[in-house]
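Today's session is about reading a structure prediction critically. Students often jump straight to the picture, but the first step is always the sequence itself: look for stretches that repeat, for charged clusters, for runs of hydrophobic residues. Only then move on to the predicted structure, which in these notes is written as discrete structure tokens rather than atom positions. Here is the chain we will use throughout the hour.
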Amino acid sequence: MNRVTIDLQGLRHNIRVIRSWMKKHEATWTIVTKALCGHTDTLRALQLLGIRSMGDSRLANLQAIEKIIPDFESWYLRVADMSSVRDVVGLADVSLNSEIEVINSLNEQARQLNKTHRIIIMIELGDLREGILPGSLIKFYETVFDLSNIEVIGIGANLGCLAGAVPNIDQFTQLALYRELLELKFQRRMQLISAGSSAVIPMLLEGKLPKAINHFRIGEAIFLGTDIVNGGTLPELRDDAIILEAEIAEIKEKGLVPLSETISMTPFELDQAHEDFSPGQRGYRALVSVGQLDTEINGLTPVDSGYHIAGASSDVTVVNIGDEPGGLEVGDTIRFRPNYAALLRLMSGKYIGKEVTPSLDKLKNLPESELLEVEPAIEAVTEDNAK
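Below is the predicted structure for this chain, in token form.
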């Protein structure tokens, strides 16, 4: 059986460690759940662990969370388009925005629904993704601050998400200065600078991140423990909370070098480390019934460091397992660690099973002292306003 296993103890460990980092930095944070693709059991587990602030980039996923967790703070993390503003206002407490026409429409929808919709204004700082240009800040804010049903609770940025540029201290210092400029100009407090992500954690741990960056949106580090900047795994985090188990459909000793001329006729290119084999060299190969249709094979790493992916088609993946089968038989499974791209494909696909362990019933019996309590960021904003 092919399945993704989600180790709730591993997730709980990573959340607890990251929560301690957030507390030390005096920051609030939101767990980014988009990699879960609305997986019901994992979302229920997060609820049982005391998670109360979640963000997603798919409205369908926010709707799924709302059905499971009626009392949670919801963040919509993809800039809204005009056709989705009604659903954004209906499903999300906070959204990230960069277009005045969309914000005007959000305001009108919020007015019709008799709600106040909170927004973070995104600023472009070099990643070339969403965000208004810094030179447009004053004019932009002159408009949004006066909308009747929109509350601007802060500014934000996405760094290290698209262009691959490593976030730096100058970018975060700019954000802090922009907030000061806007507060002085308009005499309004903006409580949050939402610019923290998994890519920013190394800077946080090195003590280089300005205190002004006080809201984080964290996903990959929780689920995979990834150090996006330096490679490997972040200190203290686990990289085995989510594992792909792929069933062996065939295992045989075979030649490791093709017998005929090879050309680039396969539609699937692999970036796996090249293995040097001599003509006529033989070894054991396992064929597992997971392929490019199921996930990003380039994003899989066998848990056993002695195994190496040799290639993959749409339906199967071939793994070199060494000079001996090592006790493996047809029907056994080979375990892989997915990277973020592979995880997204696995969780969104319909062909691979997903299973949480241990059972949710065990989490239900956790004493209150064991709950993680990731508190809503909006509560922190409200408390700050009351001071």
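Discussion point for the tutorial: The first strand starts at residue 3 and ends at 7.
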